Amino acid sequence: MTRMSSAAELEKFREDILSSRDPERLSVAVCSGTACLGRGNAGVLRAFEEEIKKQSLGREVDVRATGCHGFCERGPNVVIQPEEICYMEVSPEDVPEIVSETLAGGRIVDRLVHTDPDTGEKGAHANEIPFYRNQVRNLIGDNTRIDPRSLEDYLAVGGYSALSRALFEMDPRGVLEEVKKANLRGRGGGGFPAGLKWETARNAPGDEKYVIVNGHEGEPGAFMDRALFTGNPHRVLEGLIIGAYAIGSGRGFIYTRHDNPPLVRNINTALEKAREAGLLGENILGSGFSFDVEVHFDVGIFVSGESSALMRSIEGKNPEPRPKYIRTSVSGIWNRPSNLNNVETWANVSQIIGKGAEWYAGIGTERSKGTKLLSLSGVICNTGVVEVPFGTTLREIVYDIGGGIRNGKKLKAVHFGGPMGGSVPERFLDTPLDFDEMSRIGAPIGAGGMLVLDEDADMVELTRFYLDFLTNESCGKCVPCREGIRQMLKIVGRIGRGEGRPGDIELLEEIAEVSGAASLCSLGKTAADPLKGALRYFRDEYEANILTREVE
Amino acid sequence: MSEIQLQIDGKEVKVEEGMTVLEAARKAGIDIPTLCHHEKLEPYGGCRLCTVEVESRGRTKTVAACLYPVEPDLVVRTRSERVDRIRKMILELLMAHAPDSPQLVELAREYGADRNRFEKETSFCVLCGLCVRYCAEVRGKNAISFINRGGQRAIAFIPEIAATECWDCKECFPLCPTSYLQAAYALTEALSFPERSSRTSQGA
In the structure, what pLDDT confidence band is assigned to residue A548 with cuts at 50, 70 and 90? Predict the structure, then answer.
């Protein structure tokens, strides 16, 4: 492809793509997300390619291996566009029937569509299936419409028009103000306003500044970032380029997982195609703005997703966190201003610039704007990747989207934020999803891993599991974290075995206070959060396991 | 470099910009306990014994004095109920490893730490990293390193380097607050160079 060197050329190219495509053309989107691939969707994809050839439909139908569709529970998933017919639990043996019935005959294969377990009602289209119908899929929705390796597909859904708008209709200051006005808050865990962070990096002294995508996602139970990044890499890249323009950065880094080949491949392909097209590199779209990105991989440990450790890792050093008494947005990689945001945060940028801060701020709550991706897991009927506007209540997520608790059991708790998060009991189900509200009740959203627990859940064991994870994943540098977690794990372990000693709960609280106050990085500072939450709401389960007085 | 005025334990202190709270306190004759700190080495922030309370822009927080840079009008409290509680716990956690370390024993007396609060751990290394950092930063040899992470973190001599560099150096030995370092060295020597190690014991 030829390098584009103006906004007009980009729009011309987009028009060419759209005019060459019939919007009514049939397209089969075969989910190639991790769960569906694991369940054999590669075979389904091959079956479609062969069967379509066999039934001579090649000229009427496209087949795409796409990113994650979200409904992991019912995979392997296949969506037929443009009607958005959703087939679930598809096997290669089902494919000939789908091809002859749906693609050739225009009829729905009833046995492969969603059946509501309560009403028995069938739903063939996305808007008839509660799991999809009750979401607002602004970020992940395009996953069923694009091949992640195709720049043309991304352009066909309006991709890079926000970048063009930023470069040619706005100055960097204006872009920054728009993001501030939208009140975009960081999706990586802290919920810090992205615009303020950008502004700090922009105003920090120095000519050489960096922007970074944190695509590490090491939190157990979090799988939404890789779904978005693997399925729609250009969207993250577009946000990053816009951010670099606003901050005044010429060099970016993508830090992501080494152990996910489709993710790595799709990112590399996206970068390559964007460079070829003039959307990345020297003089982007002829605007005079130059910016390029390199990809770095994690070293397989949890703490390398912590921002300062991640930056050291990019420097080629051991990924050990460093104190952030001087913020990384002022002094990060090689002591230069380095603005780090997570995958989902960057993915939000293009819609803010494209549709405006006002539109964006219309979604969500007073202080949490936009939508949030969640990884829904645990003993819930519909596990998967879910996107909802802030303000959606936990009840709506669990019951309307998640389909409720498995096997008719009762919900006991909802846990957010993995090993550094917290659990809240059933009575908080009407809490709206909101950064501040959720922190207040003791279940900060974190990156968005949402674990649903039923009446059988053992809250001592859950805490023990997370402490066990952290004792292995702490870098081990500072004492309150390394030794504090070690001791808390021992104590929670013996409580779990029914061998708790009088004073153990108080001792746990004492250690938790010190690890929270004196640890070097956020891993240690929040390591005791699941424990603190458990002691706040489920203390009786701990107390029940303390031996009162041993009879000698 | 401009001069900065701050308050430490109620005392007005004037220091150079770029100094840490620990340096400022020591300059003013105020003692803050440390374990992993060494003047010849880059501040590390591992032991957290130097944790102090600071008031900065209306917020009170606990920070590591060895790393926290001074700022104008900063208010520092090197002793408070909270600070003492943190130091006591850190000492108790460390003494599960090294109950007889003279440095820890002395500090435990000061802060009322109970050396038997936690069950004894198998390794008596407190992972202050003085040996590792001294070898890297002062000697430039990297003969000793950290291995593993989290609860499994440990120090280890690298036999190939130790074989040529450590023999006539051993400058890290007196830095160690426990006696683990010497033990680790003796073990490395015995396992990697049995001949030399038996010569040493004969010569002794």
Answer: low
Residue with tokens 């917020």: B59
Q: Which CATH number fits domain A371-454: 3.40.640.10, 3.10.20.600, 3.30.470.20, 3.90.70.10?
A: 3.10.20.600
Q: Do A520 and B46 touch (CB under 8 A)?
A: yes
Q: Which fold has domain A159-361?
A: Rossmann fold (3.40.50)
Instruction: Answer whether residue A283 shows pLDDT above 80.
Output: yes
Cα dihedral sign, A377-A380-A384-A389 = negative
Kindly determine whether residue A485 and residue B148, on different chains, have CB atoms separated by under 8 Å. Answer: no
- Alpha carbon A98 to its chain's center: 31
Q: Is the Cβ–Cβ distance between A108 and A85 less than 8 Å? A: yes
Q: What was the pLDDT predicted at B65?
A: 97
Q: Where are the domains of chain A?
A: 25-144, 159-361, 371-454, 459-543
CB contact (8 A) between residue B51 and residue A471: no
| SS3 category, B59 | strand
pLDDT band for A465, please (50, 70, 90 cuts). Answer: very high
Tokens of residue B127, six digits: 């992972």
Q: Is the pLDDT of residue A403 over 90?
A: yes
A319: nearest CA partner in chain B:
B149
Residues of A in contact with B151 (CB under 8 A): 471-472, 474, 476, 482, 485-486
Of residues B45, B89, B149, nearest to A478 (C-beta): B45
> Is the pTM here over 0.90, yes or no?
yes
Q: Closest Cα of chain A to B94: distance in Å?
A: 8
Q: What is the mean pLDDT of residues A198-219?
A: 96
User: H/E element holding A386?
Assistant: strand A384-389
The Cα A401–Cα A388 span in angstroms is 10
Write down the ipTM of this complex.
Answer: 0.93
Chain B touched by A330 (CB under 8 Å): no
Express each pLDDT in A351-379 by its tens digit: 999 999 999 999 999 999 999 999 999 99
For chain A, positions 463-482, list CB contacts with chain B under 8 A: 470-480, 482
Q: What number does CATH give the domain A25-144?
A: 3.40.30.10
Q: How far is B170 from chain A (nearest CA, A)?
A: 23
Question: Domain A459-543 is in which class?
Answer: mainly alpha
B203 has pLDDT over 60:
no
Size of interface A-B (CB pairs under 8 A): 103
Report yes or no: A268 and A295 within 8 Å, Cβ to Cβ: yes
Q: Which residues of A touch B68 (CB under 8 A)?
A: 323, 325
| Domain at B130-203: CATH code | 3.30.70
- Distance between CA atoms of residues A411 and A418, nearest Å: 18
Top-level class of domain B3-79: alpha beta
Chain A CB contacts of B121 under 8 Å are 486
Q: Which residue of B has its CA nearest to A468?
A: B151
- For residue A76, whether the previous peptide bond is cis, meaning omega lies within 30 degrees of 0, is yes
Domain residue extents for chain B: 3-79, 130-203
Residues of B in contact with A519 (CB under 8 A): 48
